[in-house]
Amino acid sequence: MQKQKHHREWLVRIRKKFKFTQEVVAKKANIARTTYAMIETGERTPTVQNAKRIAKVLEFQWTLFFEDSCHETCKNNLHDTRMLS
Predict the structure, then answer these.
(1) For helices 33-41 and 48-58, what crossing angle results, to 10°?
(2) Cα separation, 24 vs 29, whole angstroms
């Protein structure tokens, strides 16, 4: 049975809003670029520590990574409103 990927479009939108590359976010969050890329594409779920680091860099609530019940429309609103971590 293949694990389903959940591409994090909301994360890409936030990153692009800041005009950051994956490399910039990864460096600021002190994680490998490949790790960040896999988190963004849904190939990996971040650890709590990495979720907090990424959220701090991109200024959103780190718990969004773990809120499966949050609809995509909820996450879409992030481009308008920054949530504090």
Answers:
(1) 90
(2) 8
Tokens of 77: 């609103």
pLDDT value of residue 67 = 80
Burial class (CB in 10 A: 0-12, 13-18, 19+), 57: buried
pLDDT more than 70, % of the chain: 72
3 state SS for 12-69: HHHHHHCCCCHHHHHHHHCCCHHHHHHHHHCCCCCCHHHHHHHHHHHCCCHHHHHCCC
Cα torsion 85, 64, 7, 74: sign: negative
SS3 72: helix
Spatial distance between the Cα atoms of 76 and 44, rounded to a whole number of angstroms: 21
Q: Look at 80 and 57; give whichever has higher pLDDT.
A: 57
